[in-house]
Amino acid sequence: MIRSTLATLALMGALSPAYSYDPQSLGKDAAWVEEQSDRIASQATGLADNLWNWAEMGYQETRSSAAIQEHLQEAGFSVETGIGDIPTAFVASYKQGRGGPVIGLLAEMDALPGVAQHAVPEYSPIEGQAAGHACGHHLFGAGSTAAAIMLSRWLEETGTPGEIRLYGTPAEEGGSGKVYMVRAGAFEGTDVVLQWHPGDRNAALPTSSLANRSAKFRFKGVASHAAAAPERGRSALDGVEAMNFMVNMLREHVPDSTRIHYVITDGGMAPNVVPAQAEVFYYVRDNTAADLEPVWERVEQIARAAAQGTGTSVEWEIIHGNHSLLPNQVLNRLLDASMRQFGGIEYSKSEEKFARSLDGLASKPGRMIGDQKKIVDYDPSEAPSPGSTDVGDVSWNVPTGGFATATWVPGTSAHTWQAVAAGGTSIGHKGMLLAAETLALAGIQLLREPGLVEQATREFERKRGDDFEYAPLLGDREPPLDYRK
User: Fold this and answer.
1) Which of 129, 263, 278, 484 has the most neighbouring CB atoms within 10 Å?
2) What is the pLDDT of residues 101-115, one digit of tens each?
3) Per the record, GO CC terms (predicted)?
């Protein structure tokens, strides 16, 4: 149900003293969005369900990308594919008239390996399926597509000049798909970007994220019989273990904000053979790219020292790298106010039964069933979240606002089978449609009031600083199209 409250209107006005919104006009836009949402709901949920069933991993989202493109082309969008030398990346555009703001929307689509789950409230893996949408990117892609289509219809009906760009962004999960798209210039000419993410609550908080870089360190040694001729061997696994030992000592001498984690991805095949090759996969995170760089340099120095000390050699491949998220208060306040026009999410009796039956919820302090009805109070503190996202690179190049909706049962963590299960039901659909409506209403306000775009841009430029020069943390490497194979 649409809710136009005085508090909401005051918050909209708080974006800037120069801009206020007529209650009747704002309510009319929200009513129009809600009507359009009802019209395309079955199409949007059908698309989301297809993506959920296909569960394609990073850079392998062939069917998912094609299905999203097809929906947009049928709605009158022109589509450019293969962005940044990524077959599943695309930009779909709808333009009305000359001039006007260019509004970008992000649409993720990749699934996570090893989390295939039926849409039931108990642990039930799908046999033979390699991946599952444990981060809800099927809802992300379908919801943003629905919002883009609604905005294109609004442009057509009103004759307002402007352009909508829907970015099909593959491989967010460890593949940094958006970084390659940014590097290829795909976001040039876009005035603002709006994005959302599935979650367990409704919130448009302007949080930051951690900058992140990863690499696979590959050591090479000399194979030998571990019992008959150990003196002839040079263990690549010794190189890996020496590196890990020294990195663990490094933890005492890094900032509190630093996070370092690793897994040994190749440690040899047989104990009686000195391993000639071994590999360890590292992630390093910190508040910003500037904070990350000196720590990363020390990790690289440790790798060289480990090789020298064990008589092996080492080389490494940067797998991905993401900048931190640069929050934008103007856009996030707009998204918060837009979401409040539609209110939270009501469960049906069957949905509530499903929610209460969901086994093993990764309980979070203060989260409980019923919270999906609420919208979290706006907090402008910009506190960093513990995760990382390639949206960060977009946000350092274009003013970017984002939010989350309760597509999962409150208390559910991302990357769990519980998230997969709820995302394949009407619980996920309801959260997705709230996100689509929020994006569409916020987009309409930006198209109506280009001055809001100017405000967001001024904030963006001030926070980024005059001397900022963007450099992707993954360097000049090509997209790792086979990283999930």
Assistant:
1) 278
2) 999 999 999 999 999
3) cytoplasm
